[in-house]
Amino acid sequence: MELKIGVIGIGAMGRDHIERINERVNGAVVSAISDINKEVAINYATEIGATFFENAEDLIASETVDAVVVTSWDPTHEKYVLESIEKNKYVFCEKPLAIESTGCLNIVDKEVEKNKKFVQVGFMRRYDRGYEDIKRELQSGKLGETLLIHCTHRNEMVDEGYDTPMAVENTAVHEVDALRWLLEEDFVKAEVRLPKKQTTKTHAKLHDPQLILLETESGVIIDLEVFVNCQFGYDINCKVVCEQGEIGLTNPTYYSIKTERKDSTRVPSDWKERFIAAYDRELQLWVEGVKADNVTGPSAWDGYMASVTTSACSEARDTGEEKTIKFEAKPSLYKEK
User: Can you give the pTM of this predicted structure?
Assistant: First the structure.
């Protein structure tokens, strides 16, 4: 039996997920959509054979929708997730879970009240084979204790709608979740350095690049370079330095070119190309989890912890000072059993 999914928000990410669900994910179909751009959404609904709902709350309540995917404007995420929980429906929400950490806690509190985890947050790095392999090696203990992690998050270029805060809140948030998941511990300190020397490819509202420093509970130090106008492609790196070795990501490539005394491999152009397999696997496992009444992906608590950490990074950037990361006690609902 196919899981009937309602998608709220049909921008680039929404359409990407709709195509993924309808064409590559087994056992599910998009049965309904909602978007503020009514005319475009009606036409798109007709194109994919879905029902259009002008009001997203009506979509969530509809008997034609078994589960919800939220890919709408960021400030609307919290209310649609809360409404989905209220209607006892599983909901997949792209990051951020809410604009503020207090909003994330509202969602956590609602799940605690229901005594059930309904929410999965779209942190797809956890489903990338490279990150999974790194986690497996770290868990094996063969390389000894983790000491340092060096990361880069580089985009080929961004437009003038992308500003300085987005480097932390929209970009680095992926590493924040992935590294917390890899190490299985929380961050306690954050610092952000804005180098005096910037790329000439940036614009007045964007300081580029930026350097983020994080420290975990056990003392692991992480440096993360965010450089969103690097010009050469979408370049994601993660190198974990341990007592007895190093393990790191490689860009997934399927061919190399040798010509004119050069041996080269392609750098992905964007996040879609680099992480398409991870996105597919993320949604496939979410669908299977919903059907099994046991969703195990990044939780509302993970969304809250990412929000708390990025907020501390933003404060550190704005003040030029190291900040202590403070967070609430984890409810028992989110503790591994």
Answer: 0.95
